[in-house]
Design goal:
Helix content: under 10%
Order of helices and strands: EEEEEEEEEEEEEEEEEEEEEEH
Structural class: mainly beta
Strand order of the largest sheet: 1-4-7-10-12-16-18-22-21-20
Largest sheet: 10 strands, mixed
Number of strands: 22
Distance between the termini: 77 Å
Shape: elongated
Number of helices: 1
Length: 203
């Protein structure tokens, strides 16, 4: 009772680029993309739709990078089921991505605007991750709510840094708002940076 959109059992180093629809439907194990324990994927780049009647992506092996600017969904399960697998880098702009199991080593929030940015919810989170801001993001000062949920402080190794967007310098931190929910708080350092440069220019 299975229907996979794409399945990889023994493949190694394969890359997938999707701008259309990858769908697995019907039965108890409908996966958009299924990676078996002997398979591995280099990169999944998705600007379209990956969906499964159970999980969008079910990973039992290794994925180096997932870059998601589209949608990944699982009807009865999760966007990404990673209970027995590992993901090195996950970049996301979808506002309702869900992940079951092992957290990625690096999670990058793609920010398009104050109202359009990546949000991810974890279930049975295991492991620890670094959280950063994805390349080509557009930042402004403020709080981006609920960028990450379902994890505790022990699941986060690093959650702060600096970022340059449109010539402006920002400092950011992923801050616990309540329970297992975390917000992205961004402060504009541009004026401070300019003052530092001016004061050090001499006469």
């Amino acid at each position: 009772n299975s229907n996979y959109g794409i399945v990889f059992w023994n493949n190694s180093g394969t890359s997938i680029t999707n701008s259309g629809t990858i769908q697995g439907s019907g039965g108890n194990y409908g996966y958009g993309i299924r990676i078996g324990s002997s398979g591995s994927i280099s990169t999944i780049t998705n600007s379209g739709t990956i969906k499964g009647s159970k999980d969008g992506i079910s990973n039992s092996s290794t994925i180096t990078s997932i870059i998601n600017s589209g949608t990944i969904t699982g009807t009865s399960g999760y966007s990404i089921h990673n209970f027995g697998g590992s993901i090195t880098n996950l970049t996301n702009s979808q506002n309702n991505l869900t992940l079951m199991g092992n957290v990625p080593i690096n999670y990058y929030i793609k920010v398009n605007s104050t109202s359009s940015y990546g949000k991810i919810s974890f279930t049975n989170a295991s492991g620890s991750m670094n959280i950063g801001i994805a390349d080509d993001s557009t930042l402004t000062e403020g709080t981006y709510e609920a960028v990450v949920s379902g994890v505790s402080a022990s699941n986060i190794s690093n959650r702060s840094g600096t970022y340059i967007s449109d010539g402006n310098h920002y400092k950011y931190i992923v801050s616990n708002s309540s329970g297992t929910q975390w917000n992205l708080v961004v402060n504009d350092l541009t004026e401070d940076v300019q003052c530092s440069v001016d004061s050090g220019s001499g006469s």
